[in-house]
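[worker-b] picked up task from shared queue
[worker-b] task type: protein-ligand structure
[worker-b] ligand name resolved to flavin mononucleotide; SMILES cross-checked against name lookup, match
[worker-b] sequence length check passed
[worker-b] input payload:
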Amino acid sequence: MNTIGTELRLTLFGTSHGPCVGAVLDGIPPGMAIDLERIQNEVDLRKPAAGIGTPRQEEDRVEVLSGILEGRSTGSPITLMVVNRNVDSSKYEQFKRVPRPGHADLVARSKYAECTDLRGGGQFSGRMTVALVAAGTLAKMLLEERDIRVAAFVRQIGSVRDTGERGLAEALFSRSNPVRAASPELVERMMEEVLKAGKEGDSVGGVVECIADGLPMGLGEPFFDTVEGEMAKMMFAVPGVKGIEFGAGFAAASMRGSQHNDPFVLVDGKVRTAKNDAGGILGGITNGMPVVFRVAIKPTASIARGQRSLDLQSGRETELKIEGRHDPCIAPRAVPVVEAAAALVLADLGMRGGSID
Ligand SMILES: Cc1cc2nc3c(=O)[nH]c(=O)nc-3n(C[C@H](O)[C@H](O)[C@H](O)COP(=O)(O)O)c2cc1C
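[worker-b] inference finished, payload out:
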């Protein structure tokens, strides 16, 4: 449905080409200091970068409708809204008849019939994530009050993979460049990969890695509401996400136990592990090490070059050429989205487990 979370509940509303997109976040305790400029900054990080993003330019000004008074949370649901201004729905009418391969047009039409709002991708649009970022920043603030930091970066774009060891500092560095690379050496190569795909009328996929540092041991509710389970559910709500792995992830399948097990060590009187192939989670519960996960993001479905599709009216195969405004690579724009979404999950689990009251 459109609501997620147990103690910290998020509801998203709006559509890509409707009047607005927005979020209602219920559960933020009263009295939390809220820096509205910070929310705006995080939302701005999601904007398309010049040259490598969609030409759709939105102001994305976040408006507060409820739950915040004089810079503090009131304890009632916080409603944040962003008005859609730069809307051009003319290119979307055809997708009702000829659905875009790789996009949600066909399934949306079959599930919601003719009344569905497919303009700009409707509720399936990446635009919904503006609201997710705005609300997730509140969760970040809640976590930061407890010295928990969440940051993400682009680990891979197409064939360009960052093979370095990365921590929170590198993830934060990624905010300084348009492809959201963790190292300055990768920026140009990643940019080229996106530009090349765009020039060829195509798109390219990527991997976003997220690190949550400073978490206490004990977040996560077995059996079903594990950190991995809750995180995966949230991440698969982000449009374009096709996979998730924690720590060593799929590479664990080809490892020996002696290699994969993280030895326990004492650091400043606290039990830690000497490395972090578990991604900070054992038995579905945080173990005090940073939670590290990666999401695979598919290449953007809407590409300029002709593709095979079906004309649903005639039943004939046809060539579809898409003229709308699209991102040749979603991964850089997904970075603040993944951060915000992760913060919401961790804050919710913290509240459920009692480490955040
Ligand atoms: C920030 C962001 C921007 C996106 N931009 C586009 C876009 O310009 N064109 C497009 O076809 N898909 C874009 N997407 C992805 C689609 O919304 C998504 O692929 C589609 O809804 C189908 O869902 P699925 O890929 O999860 O199956 C974007 C996603 C995100 C998170």
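[worker-b] attaching auto-annotations
[worker-b] The first helix runs from residue 36 to 45.
[worker-b] releasing lock
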